[in-house]
Amino acid sequence: MGAALDVRGTRPSSSLELPVTALPGIGADSAKLLERIEIRTIGDLLWHLPRTYADFSKFTPLRSVRAEQEQTVEAILGHITQRRTARGQLMTEVELLDPQDRSPTNVRATWFGRQFIKERYPEGQLVRLSGKVRFFGRSLQFSNPKMENAAAEAVHTGRIVPMYRLTEGLKEGHLRRWLHTAVMGGAKRTPVVREVADPLPEAVRARRSLVPIQDALREVHFPSEWKDLFSARRRLAFDELLVLQLALGQRRARWTKDAKALPLRADDEEVARWIASLPFALTAGQRRAFDKIREDLGKRVPMSRLLEGDVGSGKTVVAALAARVAVASGSQAALMAPTELLAEQHHRSLTTLFADGPRHALLTSSVIGATRQEILAGLASGELEVVVGTHALVEEGVSFKRLGLAIVDEQHRFGVRQRATFREKGIDPHLLLTTATPIPQTLSQTVYRDLDISILDEMPSGRQLIRTEVRPHGTLPRVWPWLKERVAAGEQAFVVTPRIEEDPEEDIPSAEATFRDLIAKDLAGVRVGLLHGRMPARERDDVMRRFAARELDVMVATTVVEVGIDIPDATVMIILGAERFGLAQLHQLRGRVGRRGQRAFCILISEAAGESERLAAMTEMKPGTDIPLDGFDLAKRDLQIRGAGEFLGKRQSGEENELRIVDLADVDPALIDETAVEADRILAADPRLERPEHASLEQAVADLWRRYALA
Q1: Scanning 173, 478, 489, 641, which has its CA 20 to 30 A from the CA of 80?
Q2: What predicted TM-score, i.e. pTM, was given to this entire model?
Q3: Where on the phi/psi map is residue 314: left (φ > 0), alpha (ψ -120 to 50), or beta?
Q4: pLDDT-derived band of residue 709, with 50, 70 and 90 as boundaries?
Q5: What are φ and ψ of residue 142, in 5° steps?
Q6: Is pLDDT above 70 for 600?
Q7: CB–CB of 172/50 below 8 Å?
Q8: What's the rounded Cα separation, in Å, for the pair 373 and 88?
Q9: What distance in Å separates the CA atoms of residue 303 and residue 292, rounded to the nearest whole number?
């Protein structure tokens, strides 16, 4: 949570600053688990917000429950038995009696483990149960449901239930109970949430009809109703976006005011010669983007431009042409990628594009010894004109003679740290960021308020369409044998899941469980790899290199492959739990296959019948054409279908978002507009946020810069 933006109003020496062990039920061992997710104080705990919610608020009569649905019931506990399964697991089974007349029903509840159930819940007790019902023989069965005494306050059942980010060993039920104590208090405890001071000026809250911060925190953790939850999320999102916009607004004002950029220019004949030497023709979109970049580079005000475009739209070529302009002006250019693999891929691309110059090199943490020293010396002397690398380019030991252009690839969310530290490497280098993550225009123009935007809205010719199908989970037994046939034909495949770890309380596909099951059963004998964001970077890179070298046939992964190296022979993308991804994200994943123009497939597996309309957009074509909807079309469609307020978190890629509440690719445009207006109003009257009523906002902005080492 340390990477998330927030506005915290805390009074000095409040309970919020106490260690978590000050809350009932949290001992030393639990505190160690919480510290793994950066929760040390009660205030940290309070700001550990739910990642999603389960709607267990609607009750179904016990005799009316249906299979394959999440439901909540009241029931009387009948006979309770416990036995060991063939695998040695303890299974607890409970008969459920109708609470109206205590008569038997054909509904049961079962748990694996949970020995305490027989000890804590006596037969004959009235309880609430929430969970998924399945057929088991002729009976219906709640599988691992949440259960509470019906006379107790609803925390885990019978309400809109919050679900939190966890760590190994930390039980969600325990975390939810601790948060309930902090947020709702108890018979003898005042809720700690009441000590949170509101950071927004009263005038802003009134003007924007925002709920008080204490109410927002209470409702975001334990919502009374969906409408109250939406209001709470809107308030917290407002705070988050306002801080972001204040920070970036101040940053752009400083950069513009103190501009020291070197004008970078190349004559038209030389540029025409570069373009003519390319092994392909530029699209109209690439030409427009490059023309705007050339115009920006020729000014003394340092360029700050974001180049957006789908996977395969040709962003690297545009960036390479910009680098040539810098070199033609006697300056150097640097391109930074998020991973070593991507840096290596970009270096190979530039080697092809720069056959007749400029002089370029690859610098990553893997480049060591004499080679590294030679590259560093070349950058310092100016002999090396273009360098490609990772974060190693912004290390203290790397210096440039005359850095004129910094290119940061795939900074699709924030990129604040990279933008500023790259600027420190030159007099004030021009900055070009690239991203393949489509962001609706109204959002990008405001959230990236310190950037100008160029969009590559067409694809180069020669790319073959990827056949996309939406299928129910029950078709997987036919999908896996088909996949084995494709692998036998020499093709490679991705299998993507929404989560890393298996959770016995949630039936959500996970990478680890899918990998384990595939190598043991459905894809036995096939070379299968596993990749997710919690693996060490070097281990991730090693797995991807093996996949690229065809030492692996199938890669089971989370969305860490959304931005990755090209796998030329990858022709199949199977996405499990597809309903848990945004359309733009699904489009990104689909773009990882068929990279050589060969026939390719994308299979979206979904159990959510209500998601069929949204997922069907992945198979749609642009009106009157045979061209699929592009990433920008899909981002807009997702917003239309799910609604501007849709917020349920879908990702567990292992990488944390910089923002706690806001998903920059799917946020209410009206909220963007409101925070932009308020940020401009505040900065116009108080550019440095020095007024007393802006003290909390100033502190939040300072915390943001400090978090990214930009103090």
Answers
A1: 173
A2: 0.62
A3: left
A4: very low
A5: -75, 125
A6: yes
A7: no
A8: 59
A9: 10
